[in-house]
Amino acid sequence: ICQKAEHTFANMPCGIMDQLISVAGQKDRALLIDCRNLSVQQIPFETSDLAVLICNSNVKHELSSSEYPLRRKQCKQALELMGLESYHEAIEESLDALKGADEVLLKRARHVITEIKRTTAAAEALKAGDFEQMGKLMVESHRSLQEDFEVSCHEVDILVEAALAAPGVLGSRMTGGGFGGCAVTLVQKESVEDAVKMIDTIYSRKVGGKYRARFFLAEPAEGARVLNMREY
């Protein structure tokens, strides 16, 4: 219903991730979503020594309303050229079918194919408690979003690079619809304060004071549910 409302009334052909995590989220769990049938897996995400740091660039998503539908259209065109029904059927060799086509379609398809692979690998890394691998996958994901899907922006790239230079940081990537907004960073809890100071300093200097970053700590929590206010 939430997705349909955005499609119909906001005229935004969005995906299902935000709505589904808002409903199906659980404490200390990440949510692995299969968009083919909307099935989900709850993946252990124990963060006793780690923090999830949200870094807001304060750049508004001015292009996301027009560019997001375009990315969906490009991905669909690439899928048709590869002769496939779903990107879940694709492997990196499937991209050979696009080598004579528009390079943009090749880049878009490469992002989706490799991002599915990274997402599966990230779930396995979390299950194994391998947060260093998780961090590496976050960085790879950002590079792909930046270079192949082309939905990042200069300011968010600065946030990610600043985070990766900060103490205790395992990984960082843009999050959300792109063209502004936030980066999400995985960092050792003991290093949060130092990391925030360093990221803030680098970001302020490199954007020339035009924007000021804001920082929030997040943790996996229960999704939307009925609350008994007498308990609060």
From TrEMBL:
GO function terms (MF aspect): ATP binding; galactokinase activity; metal ion binding
Short name of one Pfam family: GHMP_kinases_C
GO biological process, one term: galactose metabolic process
Assigned keywords, A-Z: ATP-binding, Carbohydrate metabolism, Kinase, Magnesium, Metal-binding, Nucleotide-binding, Transferase
Keyword Lipid metabolism: no
Top-level taxon in the UniProt lineage: Eukaryota
InterPro entries: GHMP_kinase_C_dom, GHMP_kinase_C_sf, Ribosomal_Su5_D2-typ_SF, Ribsml_uS5_D2-typ_fold_subgr
GO cellular component, one term: cytosol
Domain GHMP kinase C-terminal: 122-196
Protein name per Swiss-Prot or TrEMBL: Galactokinase
